[in-house]
Q: What sequence folds into this?
């Protein structure tokens, strides 16, 4: 049988990872400024992570959610402490799309409404509701198109307020910082305005932190640069450092609807072992501080490079906006300098989302390569 799905962007087979580097089958070493798409939070094969997973799987990797799984409690406690959301509940699932699908359903369970407001250039996943709220018709099938979803420009508070006035919108969903769309920061003022408008109309306010969360921006969640407390926050990617795990962080006021959520694999022993190890390393190695320091260092070292028109984002979720599409630049960075970087739907944006463990020395390799190429 052929693997039908394979459409690799790079003709490279990665067989090993260590820290901020990955290695191909010829032993060639690559600096990872892509993080496997913002997934590698604590570096490849971190010893704490390897030990936690190995020990867990040697005892038990999976048993059904119908029994007590203490590792889930441990995870929610650690997540609450590190994020500051200690009064919230955690529903564990397996991916970002699943987290958003559950968040959107939960909002509608809660208030019985069926409309959703989302934003242009936003991305929330590929399952039915998540993809319907995503600004990309190319990945939507006919069955996903629905009049229930309305997309607004980021920053269009008046438009959103008008739409909420009828009190028939179940929820507003927005990324803490838009990732795939090109690292677009909604800004504190807009997020605060949205929250106020949601509160005034009993609309559920959902923050998608699947890409922008887990410390990458220097705070645990990107929205914590604003003064808001969303009803629901969705997480995945960096949460498992490569092990599939997602979560929905939910205010207790939705407790009555929690029983309507469910999943077979979510919150299994092994996934929780991965999740707990990630949180331990983020805390013990102070990786949020590192994310801020290295991100700021990259921006200051690249200041004045004339081909870069502007820089967006925070910490280690950065978008460098060039005069021209960055496809060739990314190719050169990979071929000539052995550096993986990320693209965006905005073709002129080079996306940087390395492990939060990257060092100044790693950053210098990228900075020098960009300076030599542009
Ligand atoms: N939300 C955001 C902001 C994302 O960037 C992504 C994935 N790129 C998703 C949701 C979907 O996550 P997953 O691919 O794990 O379903």
A:
């Amino acid at each position: 049988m052929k693997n039908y799905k394979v459409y690799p962007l790079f003709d490279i087979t990665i067989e090993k990872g260590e820290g901020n580097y990955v290695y191909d089958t010829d032993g060639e070493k690559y600096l990872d400024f892509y993080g496997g798409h913002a997934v590698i939070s604590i570096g490849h094969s971190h010893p704490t992570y390897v030990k936690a997973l190995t020990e867990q799987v040697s005892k038990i990797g999976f048993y059904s959610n119908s029994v007590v799984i203490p590792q889930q409690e441990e995870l929610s406690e650690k997540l609450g402490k590190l994020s500051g959301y200690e009064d919230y509940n955690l529903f564990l699932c397996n991916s970002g799309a699943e987290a958003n699908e559950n968040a959107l359903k939960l909002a509608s369970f809660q208030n019985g409404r069926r409309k959703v407001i989302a934003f242009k250039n936003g991305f929330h996943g590929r399952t039915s509701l998540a993809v319907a709220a995503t600004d990309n018709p190319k990945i939507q099938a006919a069955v996903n198109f629905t009049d229930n979803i309305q997309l607004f420009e980021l920053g269009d508070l008046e438009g959103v307020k008008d739409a909420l006035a009828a009190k028939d919108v179940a929820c507003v969903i927005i990324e803490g910082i838009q990732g795939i769309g090109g690292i677009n920061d909604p800004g504190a003022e807009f997020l605060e305005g949205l929250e106020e408008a949601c509160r005034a109309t009993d609309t559920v306010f959902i923050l998608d932190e699947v890409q922008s969360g887990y410390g990458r921006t220097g705070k645990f969640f990107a929205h914590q640069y604003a003064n808001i407390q969303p009803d629901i926050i969705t997480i995945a990617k960096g949460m498992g450092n490569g092990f599939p795990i997602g979560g929905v962080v939910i205010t207790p006021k939705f407790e009555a609807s929690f029983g309507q959520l469910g999943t077979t694999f979510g919150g299994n022993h092994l996934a929780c072992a991965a999740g707990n190890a990630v949180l331990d390393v983020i805390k013990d190695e102070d990786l949020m501080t590192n994310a801020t320091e290295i991100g700021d260092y990259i921006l200051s070292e690249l200041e004045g490079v004339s081909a870069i028109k502007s820089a967006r984002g925070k910490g280690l979720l950065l978008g460098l906006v060039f005069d021209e599409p960055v496809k060739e630049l990314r190719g050169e960075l990979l071929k000539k300098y052995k550096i993986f970087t990320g693209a965006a739907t905005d073709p002129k944006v080079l996306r940087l989302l390395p492990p939060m463990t990257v060092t100044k020395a790693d950053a210098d390799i990228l900075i020098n390569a960009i300076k030599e190429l542009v």
